[in-house]
Amino acid sequence: MAAQPLDYTSLFRPDLPPAAAQWSGFPKYNFVGGHNDGSSIPVDGLIAAATSVLKREGRTLATYGLESGAQGYKPLREFVAKKLKADAGITCTADEVLITSGSLQGLDLVNQLLLKPGDTIIGEEMTYGGALTRVRKCGATWIGAPVDGGGIRMDLVAKSLADLKAKGITPKYIYTIPTVQNPTATVMSEARRAELIKLSEAYGVPIFEDECYADLTWSGKRPPAIRAMAGNDRVIHIGSFSKSIAPAIRLGYLVAGWPLMSRILALKTDAGTPAIDQMVLAEFATGQFDTHVVGLRKVLKRKLDVLVEALHAEFGTVAEFEIPEGGIFLWVKLPDSVDTMRLFQAAGKAGVAINPGVEWSSNAAAGKTRLRICFANPTEAQLREGVAKLAEVCHAEFGVPLRSRNTERGR
Description:
The chain is α/β, with parallel strands linked by helices. The protein folds into two domains: 26-42 and 291-410, Aspartate Aminotransferase, domain 1 (Alpha-Beta Complex); 43-288, 3-Layer(aba) Sandwich (Aspartate Aminotransferase, domain 2), CATH 3.40.640. It contains 13 helices and 14 strands.
């Protein structure tokens, strides 16, 4: 007689998140997540890089840390330091760079270092959902400041800092995505970056700068990083290769001076970020990164243009948005009668995946009518067809737009 299976339900800890759904493939029109353009993945270059570096240094895989130490493969850290100097104005050494398993690990490490239940941070009101959920999981409070075309509003950051000081509260950090913000895709002006540094100095609050999308400005130009302007560890800086090379490569980096780095390293107990990935990326990026990114920007800008054309055609003026200066997302505002969480659910049944705005906002009311569309992964045909299908669903659920093009075709 076969033994009865063990029921683990009674053994689970009580604070677990809901069970994950079993993956059944991507929807036909996949406008969610941080996926990128499949045709732009530099497959041949990565194959050549893998062959070259493994033939030359493959035996170093016998040791944890690749004979480079706990901070990651030294040639990759050297590339990051050189790249940050050239692109963002940050002066750092390889010893001030930590290679992480995506920028998410950088977020987690900083939160482990600084946050405890009851703490407070200040960040953009519309922000990266992963950062928002992680802060709340730590038991900390997120105070959101609205974003406009120039980035986070410094007058409202200043007001939040003053209000908190009056209550005897010092935030643990100010979190910002200054260069191609997620989800709004705005770029913070250099003047506001300078204002933020002054506020940081006046209130004794560090800045946590997340620049995952900074390589993807259409012009290839960007303001200096806040860490570059501050010139010291007042700013903790993280970045990623997920958007410039490939999301599944899961490599990011954190920049900090040794007093902070030494404490962060003590928290990074994963025995090291995957080694072969680092070796291959360093080999590829050292000679081909800039050329690759120039080509990727052109592909993404073309897809954005297609998405914008499709939204104008299917939604008319009821879909409001600012044309982004780079990145892979479009942040769309629909009329007040539309609840994008309901739209997300209805569209999903029709094969269209979108990100409802409440998942990307610290203010649920402000996010209710917004949605984030990732345009990088779908083909141009899928962008057109998917937006048409979304308009059809939105019309059926909310009467917005007043008449979808698909409805007209069916008359």
